[in-house]
Design goal:
The chain is built from 8 helices and 14 strands. The protein has 2 domains: about 150 residues, Periplasmic binding protein-like II (D-Maltodextrin-Binding Protein, domain 2), CATH 3.40.190.10; about 100 residues, Periplasmic binding protein-like II (D-Maltodextrin-Binding Protein, domain 2, 3-Layer(aba) Sandwich). By secondary structure, the chain is α/β, with parallel strands linked by helices. The radius of gyration is 19 Å and the shape is globular. Helix 1 packs across helix 8. Belongs to the nlpA lipoprotein family.
Length: about 270
């Protein structure tokens, strides 16, 4: 790892001491999930821009990356899709700036009790994310695979289990924190798991999922986000350009083999 890159690991149990915003010549502090986001950032600096000073703040636990950005403890973050960001903005009462759309992590359906969706037991428990945008996303994936049907007006980012109109196998639903979804696999018939958390748990979505979201036209591309005040910062703009380069797209394609899908540059 070059001297210009530093990776800091933070969990919800740690006090933050990463400091206020600094001058434009200071390292750009980017909050990122370990997989695949921090790996992609490391590739950018190692292979494409060794002169770009970057501090990658890897997160786990109950830290809220958008709150770190709001409070000036980071300059940007790279972990989320736009529907999740919009729900965070509504809760926080502020607006952030989307710099670049980088990749899609297809949401997947996973089971340790069935080898195919047709084998899922009647009355089985299905675990879903407990945040609104990903709950809706998971329900849409279940519907796309013929397991449930939602009322027509719920075909957006706000669908909940209350919008079910058909549930032929009488699935029961539990909503848990997204990082805990892989751990639920031993206790449920089916788990709907975000791609990054599947990777962190040692799953390979393209191989292990019983079904995956389509990447084409997927509205859940992961994005580089900053504050409105830093939206034109040269460091942020350069990082956004690098993250959407053909070189990064090729790296994502080769490294993750369909488990993470690049948003190809036009």
């Amino acid at each position: 790892m070059p001297a210009s890159t530093r990776r800091v690991f933070l969990s919800g149990a740690l006090a933050l001491s990463i400091g206020p915003a600094r001058a434009a010549s200071a390292p750009l502090r980017v909050v990122a999930s370990s997989l695949p986001h921090a790996e992609i950032l490391e590739f950018v600096v190692d292979k494409l821009a060794p002169d770009l000073p970057l501090k990658v703040i890897e997160i786990s636990g109950d830290l809220r990356p958008n709150a770190l950005l709001r409070d000036g403890d980071a300059d940007a973050n790279f972990f989320q899709h736009v529907p999740f960001l919009r729900s965070e903005e509504a809760a926080m009462g502020m607006r952030f700036a989307v710099v670049a759309a980088v990749h899609v992590e297809p949401l997947g359906l996973y089971s340790r009790r069935a080898k195919a969706l047709a084998d899922l037991p009647a009355g089985g428990v299905v675990s879903l994310s407990n945040n609104v945008s990903n709950t809706s996303r998971g329900l849409s994936l279940l519907q796309a695979n013929g397991l449930i049907r939602l009322r027509a007006k719920a075909a957006d980012v706000n669908a909940t289990v209350d919008d079910l109109v058909e549930n032929p196998k009488n699935f029961r639903f539990v909503e848990i924190a997204p990082p805990q979804l892989p751990r639920s696999l031993d206790d449920v018939a089916l788990a709907v798991i975000n791609g990054n958390y599947a990777l962190e748990a040692g799953l390979e979505p393209a191989r292990d999922a019983l079904a995956l979201e389509r990447a084409e036209g997927n509205p859940y591309a992961n994005v580089l986000v900053t504050t409105e005040g830093l939206a034109k910062d040269p460091r942020v703009l350069r990082l956004g350009t690098l993250l959407t380069s053909a070189e990064v797209a090729d790296f994502i394609g080769k490294r993750y083999r369909g488990s993470v899908v690049p948003v190809r540059p036009s």
